[in-house]
Write a structure and sequence with these properties.
The protein is of the alpha/beta class. It is built from 9 helices and 9 strands. The site of pyridoxal-5'-phosphate has 14 residues, from strand 9 and helix 9.
């Protein structure tokens, strides 16, 4: 793909996000998901105004970091093993996939040791797909109360991965349920918790996510093409 095509795709996605949010909500921030793609394909995104990228594997992130650091803010969006936290805690701007107390505690202690407070999102499982990770919707508030006192992390919102489906009615319900949960928790005002970011929507469903008030969408293949 040429650099020009890449930039055209980013522009088109931005236009679609603005249209879909339709003045009801601000258009969500576009996070380019760069997993599996080499730095030379990622760096041109800067010219398209992309400031934030998402990676899902620690090993791959570490390999690409020397070429990417300084050019983008990096979000960790995939499942994170506790024993890998130390390797990335100084290099990412946010960990979006926090779904257990032990993981939250590990990030807290590694961040505190590094003298920082790590922004995190609590990952919720909107369809209750336990094998994919994420906290069930009905346990989210309790989970947030548990991790709120950890001063090495700063909870800034919620993240969700939707089931792979073409059933747009189901997706409508799940995205709207996430927005409701987000607003409910924001109104609940849990001490130490900020509810500012709602990260949901990927290549197949970012328009629906924008319509339901996502503040960030994580888009990979719609920018780079299908992964091989
Ligand atoms: C890969 C990935 C994405 C992006 O997926 P696409 O369908 O390529 O847009 C978003 N979120 C997470 C957690 C991912 O692992």
């Amino acid at each position: 793909m040429t650099e020009e095509e890449l930039l055209e795709r980013v522009d088109r996605i931005r236009r679609e996000l603005a249209e879909a949010s339709d003045g009801r909500y601000p258009a969500p921030k576009l996070i380019a998901v760069t997993k599996t793609h080499p730095p030379e394909m990622i760096l041109p995104l800067k010219a398209a105004g992309i400031t934030d990228i998402g990676e899902n594997r620690v090993q791959e992130l570490r390999e690409k970091l020397p070429q990417l650091a300084g050019s983008f803010r990096i979000h960790l969006i995939g499942r994170l093993q506790r024993n890998k936290v130390r390797q990335i805690v100084q290099d990412v701007c946010m960990i979006q996939s926090v779904d257990s107390l032990p993981l939250a505690e590990e990030i807290h202690s590694r961040a505190a040791a590094a003298g920082i407070r790590m922004p995190v999102l609590a990952e919720v499982s909107p369809a209750g797909e336990a094998q994919k990770g994420g906290i069930p919707i009905r346990e989210t508030e309790q989970f947030l109360r548990q991790i709120a006192p950890l001063e090495g992390i700063q909870v800034q919102g919620l993240m969700a991965v939707m089931p792979l489906t073409e059933d747009t009615d189901l997706l409508d319900r799940l995205f709207s349920g996430m927005r409701e949960l987000f607003e409910h928790i924001r109104e609940t005002d849990i001490p130490g918790i900020r509810m500012e970011e709602l990260s949901m929507g990927m290549s197949g469903d970012y328009r629906i996510a924008a319509r339901h008030g996502a503040t960030m969408v994580r888009v990979g293949s719609a920018i780079f093409g299908p992964r091989g």
